[in-house]
Amino acid sequence: MGAKRVARIAGLDVLLPALLGGLATLGFAPFGYYGLTFVALVGLVSLWWGASARRGAWRGFVFGLAHFGSGVYWTFVSTYYYGGAPLAMAIVLVCALTAYMALYPALVGALAGTTRRLPRTLWALVVIPSAWLLAELVRSWVMTGFPWLSLGYSLIDAPVTALAPIGGVYFLGALMMVSAGTVVLLFAGSIPARALAVVMIGLAPLGLWYTPPATEWTQARGEPVSVDIIQGNFAQAIKWDRDVFRTTLERYRAMTQASDADLVVWPEVAIPAPANQVQPYFDEIATLAGERSQTVLAGTLVHEADDAPYYNAVLALGAGEGRYYKRHLVPFGEYFPVPEFVKTLLDGVNMRYSDFGFGADDQPLIEVDGVKLGLSICFEDVFGYEIAKALPEAGVLVNVTNDAWFAGTTAAAQHLEIARMRALEAGRPMLRAANTGISAIIDYDGRVRERTPEFEIAAIESRVQPRSGETPYMRIGDRPLWLASSAITLLALLGGLLLSRRRKKVGASR
Questions:
Q1: I need a labelling partner for 235 at 20 to 30 A (CA). Which of 5, 36, 179, 310 fits?
Q2: What is the rounded distance in angstroms from the CA atom of residue 3 to the CA atom of residue 90?
Q3: pLDDT value at position 11?
Q4: Residue among 268, 380, 386, 454 flagged as catalytic
Q5: For residues 203 and 199, what is the distance between their CA atoms, to the nearest angstrom?
Q6: How many CB atoms neighbour CB 393 within 10 A?
Q7: Using one digit for the tens of pLDDT, what is the confidence trace for 316-338?
């Protein structure tokens, strides 16, 4: 094999897929260059155009390594600096996560190679987008799901956001892949395929023009609620320090006393102790808030009995009543789905781990001045179906989080981007309280109305308009996407295998 051929193969199989994978990350927060993500997808589909199943899988895998490696590198910060893992173990865990996530574009690439003998218009506009859609849906479900960097999030500021309340974030991602396939057909397809691509490109603006705006699906309900989001700003390195605990109590007490809002929201585990150990403090906050007809949502831990698990919880203090226990826990973060001997090994290397309890699915909603709140804690807002459990009853969404685990990385901006998509899908405003930022008030159309800087003590005082109604996506969820993508991918795979087998038989008979 000549040197030029080796260089060409290395470029197409390693360098170019890696470059495209890194380019795709620039469409997500905090960068927001969604056009570059689109260019990367066009390049990826082009690399799959004539590739075999093996080569398509490899190119997809390299793309995924670069994309997810540059997009979720921040898991190293939480694992090593705050999780207590030895350096070698932290590196192995992060690399394993990246490789696992890269398997999904690899599988799509393998399918692309297997089905490359199907009609090219069908291949580019239906098969590849459906396979990618199915891959993202499966990634959102396996091991309770890790759908970070799903393509649709990169479009939160693009002119297609009116489609999110209709089909959700995965639908947006599938349309992005259809668009990428259209561009590839325009340059590499047959004359009829190019004509179809031109027609699709011409009709796209017309379709967006007739798409109902976000205002069509939900309506203002009742009077606005005055809110105060408090950002206490305790770095993860000191958050659980005994010497800082009294400062924590005093800061949240003082900032709450300074507020006259109807609703005050603290971040996730704002008070780093089980509630029963600081019950007098919570009683004091409840009394102060009750005297002013104020409700405080306090993030804390709850340990109801010695033989009961700990819960990541939000307590309603003052005028409001109730509590919320986190339902969707982070695997390998808040619970470890591993045998006991593995936990013993973790103890042996002094790596901290937790096993929290799961909150019930049917928890009653907390109500403030007649407005029901749809609560979620941290990672839960990554899943649209978790938000849907509170709808259509909830008029306002509330997410409390602690992104200090990933301080100084892109994770906080990415998490805010995800929260914006949930507000847009649900047609509800969202109040977001983050320990070290980014705290924000997000309007029902996904736009950030107010936000705090990171790593500062801050508060947002404003008024929020509750809404009623139900968007199509919150009503039907991802079920149609699962059915359509599964059926199309299976049929395409069978068709590709049959065509390949027929070709081999024809070749053997000659």
A1: 310
A2: 38
A3: 76
A4: 268
A5: 6
A6: 13
A7: 999 999 999 999 988 766 765 54
3-state DSSP assignment of residue 433: strand
Strands 430-434 and 396-401, bridge-based pairing: parallel
| pLDDT for residue 347 is more than 70 | no
| CA pair distance 113, 105, nearest whole angstrom | 12
User: How close are the terminal C-alpha atoms of the chain, in Å?
Assistant: 29
- Label residue 38 exposed, middle or buried (CB < 10 Å: 0-12, 13-18, 19+): buried
Task: Give the model confidence (pLDDT) of 209-227 as tens digits.
Answer: 889 988 899 999 999 999 9
Tell whether the model's pLDDT for residue 273 goes beyond 90: yes
How far is the C-alpha of 435 from the C-alpha of 416, rounded, in Å? 13
pLDDT above 90: percentage of residues in the chain: 84
Residue pointed to by tokens 């190019």: 194
pLDDT of residue 305: 82
Contact 17, 44 (CB under 8 A): yes
Candidate list 239, 334, 367, 378, residue with the active-site label: 378
Tell me, yes or no, if 326 is annotated catalytic: yes
Please tell me which residue in 239, 326, 367, 372 is annotated as part of the active site: 326
Say whether pLDDT at 4 is over 70. Answer: no
pLDDT greater than 60 at residue 339: no
Nearest Cα to Cα of residue 121 among 68, 45, 64: 45
- On the question of pLDDT at 467 being above 80, the answer is yes
Q: Name the percent of the chain lying above pLDDT 70.
A: 92
CA distance 148 to 139: 9
The pTM (predicted TM-score) of the whole model is: 0.94
Classify strands 218-220 and 225-231 as parallel, antiparallel or unpaired. Answer: unpaired
Q: Which residues, including other chains, have CB under 8 Å from residue 441's CB and lie 6 or more apart?
A: 227, 229, 429, 430, 431, 432, 448, 449, 450, 451, 460, 462, 464
Indicate the average pLDDT of the chain: 92
Helical spans, DSSP H, in 219-291: 236-239, 242-257, 279-291
Residue found by looking up tokens 């990350």 in the block: 25
Taking a C-beta distance cutoff of 8 angstroms, is the pair 120, 193 a contact? yes
Residue 268 known to be catalytic:
yes
Work out the number of other CB atoms within 10 angstroms of the CB of residue 277.
Answer: 12
* Residues 118 and 109 sit within 8 Å (Cβ to Cβ): no
Query: Residue 232 corresponds to which tokens in the numbers above?
Result: 């206490």
Residue pair 60/106 in contact by the 8 Å Cβ criterion: yes
95 is catalytic: no
Q: What Cα–Cα distance (Å) separates residue 195 from each residue in 187, 192, 238? A: 11, 5, 62
Distances (CA, A) of 425 to 161, 387, 389, 413, 419: 9, 9, 13, 19, 10
Of 328, 275, 283, the residue nearest 304 (C-alpha): 275
